[in-house]
Amino acid sequence: MFLNNLEKGELNDYTFYAHNLGRFYSIFILKSLSLNDKFKLTLIWKDNSILSITITYKNVKIKLLDSIQLINGSLDNILKSFNCTIQKGHFPYNFVNKDNLFYVGTKPSQDLYKNISDKEYRSITDINWNIKKETLIYLKADVEGLLEALLKFSKNIFDKYQLNITKSKTLPSLALAAYTSNYIPKNLSSKFKMIKGDIEREIIISYFEGNVEVFINKVEKSYLYDMNSQYPAAMLNDMPVGDPVLSLETDFDNIFGFVYGEITCPNEKNLLVPFIQYRDPDKNLNTCPRGKFKRLIFFWGNEICSKIRILYKNRI
């Protein structure tokens, strides 16, 4: 049926959603479609999870997206929070096995269901309980419930921001689209530059998580400082914006932006704890190495260099 609809062009440019596509349903979908060389598959990944699958057959193209990237949470909680008329049912997962796929008889015991109340369990028919029939009912509720929730979510987003949710694969990208299209004054919109392609990939590589390390496990006399609001404070500093400009500038006083250079970390005698990170592309590992290494790093000019020198002295 799926292949017939593709051949007729009935599904061309359609977008479909599966809840938890990236880490569950994609496994079965790709396994099935990869067996047929008539389909061309294009995948977009993020953090070892599939964000989208584009299926091309002749001149027909459809896209599969993961709804959990837009509305995070279990389908049961989502249907309840959107007050959907269709709610997720109950199914005895612990009852089903390869030997009873066509079981018809008394309903499985209550302990084989998950999070089912006594009242809900009593409402299940106890005569001629059919595993195939119950499976189809359960799956139908999942599909129709997800559709109802997505339609409500889509309407809310369109009514408020005039955006089509199918154009955004994740909630952060949808939030960015809402912000840039609704909250930036027109006289400032030209100053916001969306950097894509090779430059974006290089900048992303230069970002690292913070270093959190404990070198002394016990102290007898010490002070405890609670440092908060660091991100809001950092956002008050100058940020690189606009069109990126390639420069061969070597004067530190004139540099503000991303710099590719060779870094030399002092030996242990001069610096006890190294703190500039490096990502090993072969091992996919982040370390704070000594000696010389090359990487892209953000540079603030001589004012920050002075602060870094002080930090070096304090950590010796």
Identify the notable features of this structure and list them briefly.
316 residues; disordered C terminus; alpha+beta; four-stranded mixed beta sheet; Signal recognition particle alu RNA binding heterodimer, srp9/1
| Helical/strand content category | alpha+beta
Count of helix runs: 10
Assign a percent range to the helix content: 25-40%
Compute the number of strand runs.
10
User: What is the element string, with H for helices and E for strands?
Assistant: HEHEEEHEHEHHHHHEEEEH
Beta-strand fraction estimate: 15-25%
Average pLDDT taken over every residue = 85
Mass-distribution shape: extended
Rg calc: 28 Å
| Largest beta-sheet characterization | 4 strands, mixed
Euclidean distance between termini CA atoms: 70 Å
What low-confidence regions span 5 or more consecutive residues with pLDDT below 50? Answer: 308-316
Count up the domains.
Answer: 3
**Spatial arrangement of strands, main beta sheet:** 1-4-3-2
Would you mind describing this structure in some detail?
The protein folds into 3 domains: 2-69, Signal recognition particle alu RNA binding heterodimer, srp9/1 (2-Layer Sandwich); 75-167, no CATH class; 194-316, no CATH class. The protein has 316 residues and is α+β, with helices and mostly antiparallel strands. It is extended and about 80 Å long. The chain has a 4-stranded mixed sheet with strand order 1-4-3-2. The protein has a two-stranded antiparallel ribbon with strand order 5-6. A two-stranded antiparallel ribbon has the order 7-10. The longest helix has 31 residues, at 131-161. It is built from 10 helices and 10 strands. Helix content is 34%, strand content 17%.
